[in-house]
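input
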Amino acid sequence: MLNLAGGKSTLTSQARYSQPGDVIIGGIISHIFMPFEPSNFNEYPYLVGESLVLTKNYQHILALAFAVEEINKNNQILPNVTLGFRIYDSYFSERWTCRATLELLSTQKRFIPNYKCDVHSNLIGVIGGLYSEISLQMAAILGTYKVPQLTYGSAPVISNNIKALSFYQMVPQEAHQYKGILHLFLHFSWTWAGMLVADDNNGERFLQTTIPAFSQNGICFAFIERVKAAYITDVFDMLQYGAKLYDSIMDSKANAFIFYGETQSMINWRWLLHLPEMEFTRTKEAKGKVWILTAQMEFASLIYQRSWDIQHIHGALAFTVHSNELEEFQTFLRDRNLLSTKGDGFIRNFWEQAFVCDPPNVHVDRDVNEVCTGTETLESLPKSVFEMNTTGYSYSIYNAVYAVAYALNTMLLATTKHSMVADGQMKFKDKQPWQLHHFLGRVSFNNSAGDQVSFNQNGELVAGFDIVNWLVSSNQSFHRVKVGRMDPQAPSDQAFTINDSAILWHRWFKQALPLSLCNDDCPPGYRRTKIEGKPFCCYDCVPCPEGKISNHHDMHDCSKCPEDQYPNKDKDFCKPKAFSFLSYAEPLGTVLALFSLLFFLVTTLVLGIFMKHHNTPIVKANNRDLTYTLLISLLLCFLSPVLFIGQPMKVTCLLQQIAFAIIFSLAVSCVLAKTITVALAFMATKPGSRMRKWVGKRVASFIVLGGTFIQAGICTMWLATSPPFPDIDMHSVTENIILECNEGSTSMFYCVVGYMGFLAIVSFTVAFLARKLPDSFNEAKFITFSMLVFCSVWLSFVPGYMSTKGKHMRAVEIFSILTSSAGLLGLIFFPKCFIIILRPQLNNREHLLKAKTLKHRHR
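output
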């Protein structure tokens, strides 16, 4: 405690707040922050201006006193028993914690461990402390005596050397808080985080637990910094270290920062964020960051920090031990004042620091502006100095006192061994603190706020965490707003809840949801790709490959559309495929149909001309019947494209290839017969030739029928084994579903085309050899050119047909049919039509005899 005498502040070992009772609850609560340890208990540091008082921690002291007072007024709990308490200040010091613990175990006002002569000092349990190290020091001593210890601050990492039997945590299991932080990051899609942890055992445990869990859920860390404790003896080093750390935070692309620590870390954090105002950092303009603070970091400040700007904490999200408002406690706080309160050794020091005044009747070496009137009220203090609302720590202390009281009451009801003194009060001569454990571990009750209080098998409070949004007004007024909850008792899908609309972010973000990413999200139509040498949260965005889409932000991979859909241009959604086939309604189908009709009409005209001049020499030459058969076959060739245009059906699919193959084989067979007829006629004119018996219509008919029937046989085999059928092709063309005729057997299709090519090559070869035979109206040279065109067309058809897809395959086939047929028509029949129509004088017997005479003379 502080002894304000002689102008200096010294530490004493006396309890600064005590109240006698039949049963005593001890409290070791941190109030004055000691920046360094004294060399021994007889040398006390000089606390400059007493500026290291944590005024907000005074509420923790009052919470214990209020709970005891409330219990003593309640006849339902501990009837005929008065509950007392003794509170010591730990000074945030492990040494002073050990001393205070031993003081509780000693006779009051006498520091004699293991010796008790004061019957009024019956210690039944101890509440404390705030720091994990302090709690650990207490547990090392109290565990030996098996005195129940209820810690309200950070849970220490307990080794096997410490008896954990005496240890109870008034805070929930920390694993729930870790899960809550992870849920928070996943909820807001933050994947790039900063981590600041206190450089102690608890901080190391936090790192070892959270980093693997975060990584497994796709969250990386921009940097991890272990923050060392700052002492006033090395201020310059602290400022240099803090400035470097501050600049790293501001330069980071991460906007979400986790800070795990305790009250001392809160003081360090305030130092860190105040450095720009001291012009000690390179970064002049502070960027807004979202700070996620753990439950151990209750907002606190030293007295000299009360004037510092706290706008930087606006929008922070803090996990706190679940609490509810205690209305009677607020009334208790309002009634607190410097003059009317007795037995409170903390109040004078608090009043001086909180209200910046000198307590009356105290002589000090320094001058102040005014003396405390004693009429000041706690309600008038800024919330950054003192809060009237119940904090998580005060709520935990309040529940701890009640837990001890209920356990003690149960123990008394369960046993009958006791003695009565004259005034009717119970004496606990045969009751030891260790006997309370059996009842304390099983305690379960509802407090005045309606919350259930109980412990699990590990001595941890069965409760959850509140998520609080810290808000700072323009006048530096500090507020807390509950915006969510991490409740491990709820169903798994409801354990984490948060109200996004209730959160106010830092003004830097202009109330838009802050993003915390290593790089911007990949937009729809793109996918992630790893950047070598960087964490997996850092990636490049590359467009989806052809045929795939990504319809959400930040997709790891692109996906294929359903078979009946295809990617749009931006590859961010799938569009329904349209049915596609070569129809008369589209330009390509219309043009091909018109050309087919035009050539049909031209062929009909040629046939009409030949029939009109049926008896002329030029028509009769080279077998008139073959000429008519060839023209009719060409008429059918020009009509066959009609089968390829329009929606494929079973009948049209069967007729397409079969009719095309047979008709073209008939046409080529006629050409071959004409060519062979010319060759045989020339050879028959030689004296003694045996070829005369082959000259006539029988050979020509045999060639035509034979060539056609062979093709018909191939087609019959095709129909019998694997006939063509209507089919749907969803893959050849990205944007369309192709309605087509499947050949059934591709090999049979190419056999048909190959046989037709064979006939054409034979015709070309024979015509080429007979092209210079001396005969009037010799067709051989015209057939040579026509078959050259025919072969060229169908040779180019094969690669063209195989390289095109969908309706264009049919267009290629129609084009080849029309072109090759037009070649036969034009090169064989147009020269004859020219003579018949424009040079009729050449189409007579006299010209024929004259031509023969000239040829013989020439020879």
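quick obs: The first strand starts at residue 2 and ends at 5.
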